[in-house]
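Please describe the entry underneath.
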Amino acid sequence: MGDLGQIMRQAQQMMKQREKILADLRERVVKATAGGGMVTAFASGAGEIVKLTLEPEVVDPDDREMLEDLVVAAVNEALRKAKALSEKEMARLTGGIPGLSGLLG
């Protein structure tokens, strides 16, 4: 029974560390741009878009489609960066054990 108790304590410790990492990820922000910096998206490490900026010259009422494409590109890249950051931080917690970070994230 001692081994099971030790495993349970380790699991509880990992869950506490996971919560700390998740709180840290909510505070960290990654940035991605599209259109040569004309559109910038900022995402938290938790995978939420927290800010979007547009340079005035990219806003052309006659070419909304281009702006929409740039926004989508910047947002998708910011979300990819946020996911990579989260995976990196969770891998530190799990010691890089394949699949384990998915169970905790």
